[in-house]
Design brief:
Layout lengths: L1 H57 L4 H21 L2 E3 L4 E3 L20
Antiparallel strand pairs: 1-2
């Protein structure tokens, strides 16, 4: 009889451990994703600061500013590929439409262009 009770106890322990593992997985995944999204936001902010610096030093139509703008758009593309969203340090918002190509373009007014 003792072995049957041991098996029942072991089974209950395994079920409890499995349930705890599933619960931890659901808690850990969103937090990890939020941390990664924070990295995207930080990268976008850093790229935007470099763009602003290039515009201030060399002008909005300079090759340096254009290169920094392309780097900012590369960060936005990377975030889009991961999260289907991109962060704009200018308005401090995440955007859910892939429309950053003319956003904060050097030499243009701030914000998206309207054609």
């Amino acid at each position: 009889m003792k072995t049957q009770l041991d098996y029942i106890k072991l089974g209950k322990t395994l079920v409890a451990a499995a349930m705890l593992s599933v619960l931890l997985a659901f808690v850990a995944v969103p937090r990890s994703q939020a941390d990664d999204r924070g990295k995207c936001q930080h990268s976008a902010e850093r790229a935007q600061a470099k763009l602003n610096d290039a515009i201030a030093r060399y002008g909005g139509n300079s090759q340096q500013a254009i290169n920094r703008w392309h780097q900012l758009n590369a960060v936005r593309e990377q975030c889009w590929n991961q999260y289907h969203a991109w962060y704009s340090p200018t308005d401090r918002q995440w955007h859910n439409e892939r429309n950053w190509e003319n956003y904060d373009r050097p030499g243009a007014e701030r914000g998206p262009e309207h054609h």
